[in-house]
């Protein structure tokens, strides 16, 4: 079974950063060139070289999961559309987050149990260790950072409140159309009943 990628310890959703990088990609159309230009121009306005390298790498890895059409929408769309697209990108990049989004967040929403706590994430991860022994290898401090950042991204995507409630998502028709082109549809990563959660 494929090992989980577990490098999402910092940075949050990175939707603002991704919007800036998306513009560069639409100009250049080549990821290697984008990486170089973004670093040289300090497009993300990082304070240090090491933080710039880390954030640029993470932003690019997530953006590369999106189609050119999705990247164009990310660049020109509203902040809310950008956040929804970046949540989908995070789920595509990290299978662990995708499974949590579908198996726990969306499932709880559909079962009308719309409260989500850190214990739910911990129980979910514990349940995955049988098939993914790499989860047993991470340090407790790293596990806390992973959990912390998942909940940070959920909040930034507008899917989870500070009080612990799952927030039903209302996506634009453009985002729904983009996510629906994949099979299975990437709408499965969101707390919505699809058509009921579309803004037209």
Report, as a whole number of angstroms, the end-to-end distance: 41 Å
- Count of extended strands: 2
**pLDDT averaged over residues:** 92
Number of domains as seen in the coordinates: 1
Rg over CA atoms, rounded to whole Å, is: 17 Å
Q: Predict the CATH topology.
A: fold of a uncharacterized protein from magnetospirillum magneticum
The H-and-E topology, N to C, reads as HHHHHHHHHEHE
Q: Which CATH class?
A: Mainly Alpha
Strand content: under 5%
Question: What summary fits the major beta sheet?
Answer: 2 strands, parallel
The global form is: globular
Secondary structure class reads mainly alpha
Determine the fraction of residues in helical runs and give it as a percent range.
55-70%
Task: Point out poorly predicted stretches.
Answer: none
Record the strand order, biggest sheet: 1-2
In DSSP terms (H or I, runs of 4 or more residues), the helix count works out at 10
CATH H-level homologous superfamily name: uncharacterized protein from magnetospirillum magneticum domain
**CATH architecture classification name:** Orthogonal Bundle
């Amino acid at each position: 079974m494929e090992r989980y990628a577990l490098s999402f310890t910092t940075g949050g959703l990175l939707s603002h950063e991704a919007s800036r990088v998306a513009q560069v990609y639409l100009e250049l159309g080549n990821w290697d060139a984008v990486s170089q230009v973004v670093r040289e121009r300090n497009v993300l306005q990082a304070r240090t070289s090491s933080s710039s390298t880390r954030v640029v790498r993470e932003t690019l890895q997530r953006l590369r999961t999106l189609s050119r059409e999705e990247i164009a929408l990310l660049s020109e769309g509203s902040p809310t559309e950008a956040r929804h697209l970046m949540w989908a990108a995070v789920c595509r990049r990290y299978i662990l987050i995708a499974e949590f989004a579908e198996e726990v967040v969306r499932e709880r929403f559909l079962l009308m149990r719309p409260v989500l706590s850190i214990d739910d994430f911990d129980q979910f991860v514990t349940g995955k260790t049988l098939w993914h022994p790499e989860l047993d290898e991470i340090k407790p401090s790293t596990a806390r950072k992973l959990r912390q950042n998942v909940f940070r991204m959920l909040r930034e995507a507008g899917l989870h409140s500070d009080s612990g409630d799952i927030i039903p998502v209302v996506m634009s028709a453009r985002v729904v159309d983009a996510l629906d082109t994949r099979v299975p549809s990437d709408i499965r990563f969101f707390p919505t009943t699809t058509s009921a959660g579309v803004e037209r």
